[in-house]
Design a protein that fits this description.
Distance between the termini: 8 Å
Strand order of the largest sheet: 2-3-1-4-8
Number of helices: 9
Low-confidence stretches: none
Bound molecules: BIS(adenosine)-5'-pentaphosphate
Mean pLDDT: 93
Shape: globular
Strand content: 15-25%
Largest sheet: 5 strands, parallel
Radius of gyration: 17 Å
Number of strands: 8
Length: 227
Amino acid sequence: MTPETMTKAAVLILLGPPGAGKGTQARMLEERYGLVQLSTGDLLRAAVAAGTDAGRAAKSVMEAGGLVSDEIVLAILKDRMAEPDTAKGVILDGFPRTPGQAEALDALLAEQGLKISAAVSMEVDDAAMVTRVSGRYTCADCGEGYHDSFKQPAVDGCCDKCGGKAFKRRADDNAETVGARLTAYHASTAPLIAYYGQRGVLRKVDGMGAIDSIAADLGRIVDEVTA
Ligand code: AP5
């Protein structure tokens, strides 16, 4: 399947704890299928950087590893979903994260005549997530993700994707905050696995394999649900 032969607008949800690889895989799917990655984490970080009301309210919650209120997240997500580039389909990375967000997404999609193509649970071991998240860094120019041990640029200090030379690390990527984020995931987000199971759209992938092999598994799912 290519962007040209895809017949349906895809709405793909990636579910998984911090470090599961949602962002890594969403960016790969975006490139391969022309879908748009919608990361509520990225949208919230942009709001924090811009100093908007929503960003000011979200900042301390994110730094502590908690969940930002449904009201703020939904407002940001709805604005982004209204932009025309989402027409081909979206990969929801880090959204929904609570039952309230999942219900609001159902309503939003129904308004637009869309439905969820698949909700993919990325199955990983919590213990490995601390190592993944604390070694993560991204290109400051294009956002491409890297890892101290698992994914380094081909040329040291130079982004593979855009050639940028500046890299950054997230303020919440430390062992203590990752612990709080994992707790929030299991309390509020993991129940969505059953929610989507009951709706018949749940898929599972083994998120502990190599990045390319997980991408192949996800590609097969996208091919199937957009055929
Ligand atoms: P968000 O930005 O969504 O962070 P997260 O869910 O904690 O997820 P991460 O970005 O940490 O991990 P990822 O799964 O994308 O992993 P990645 O691909 O980077 O949210 C941040 C905060 O914003 C939340 O804590 C909350 O406060 C708030 N927020 C966001 N959305 C919200 C919502 N809907 N409601 C309320 N609050 C919300 O991979 C990690 C590292 O591992 C990378 O270095 C990567 O290179 C490496 N890696 C990836 N895959 C593999 C692999 N298979 N093998 C080895 N290494 C790998």
